Amino acid sequence: MMYQCMLLLMDAEYGTGVDENGIGSWGALLLGLTFIMAIVGLIIYRIVIDHMTCSVPVQAVCVDYHSIFSSGGTVYAPVWEYEYQGRIIRSNAAVYSNTRGKLLGKTRTLYINPDNPEKFRQSMKDNAVMLFVCGIFLAFIIGAMIVKARNS
Questions:
Q1: Shared-domain flag, residues 90 and 42
Q2: For residue 35, what are the domain limits?
């Protein structure tokens, strides 16, 4: 499926049809926008589900960093330690970055899932910043696709 989407997007870029007629620039634009909107929808859905299930606030301290080694280098995620119902829980964030050490020893409010206390989310402010940056990137991509379709 992904391969077919790439072929259709290449049709708009290079003017070569997947079949003898091709789908044209506007068809590729529509396909690309549908693909982008599906991804954005999944991200928003995930944020809403996390917000609904992870509702219990706890004070957590960053005690370590979990690292993953890959061909692109090492990436890190903060490991948070917090207490819930008399248990000390250590859980690392799902988002990794190439920097470490900024949060070590810092305290932050996390919102945990009472049914699965190892699962948590950070504040909605962090999600809002991510959504804002993704929105700007998405607007740039859509604008570039429209300009390309108009010029074809």
A1: no
A2: 2-51+127-151
Q: Give the integer Cα–Cα distance in Å for 115 and 54.
A: 9
Phi/psi at 80 (5° precision):
-100, 140
The residue among 133, 79, 131 whose CA lies nearest residue 110 is: 79
Which phi and psi angles does 120 have, rounded to 5°? -145, 170
The helix/strand/coil state of 123 is coil
Structural domain contains residue 77: yes
Per the structure, the count of domains in the chain is 2
Please give the structure tokens belonging to residue 84. 């819930």
In a domain, 80, yes or no: yes
> Is residue 138 in a domain?
yes
Q: Do residues 111 and 55 lie in contact, with contact meaning Cβ atoms separated by under 8 Å?
A: yes
Interval 14-35: pLDDT, tens: 444 444 566 677 777 778 788 8
pLDDT more than 90, % of the chain: 23
Query: How far is C-alpha 126 from the geometric centre of its chain's CA atoms?
Result: 12
Question: What is the model's pTM?
Answer: 0.59
Cα 11 to Cα 28: distance, rounded to the nearest angstrom: 7
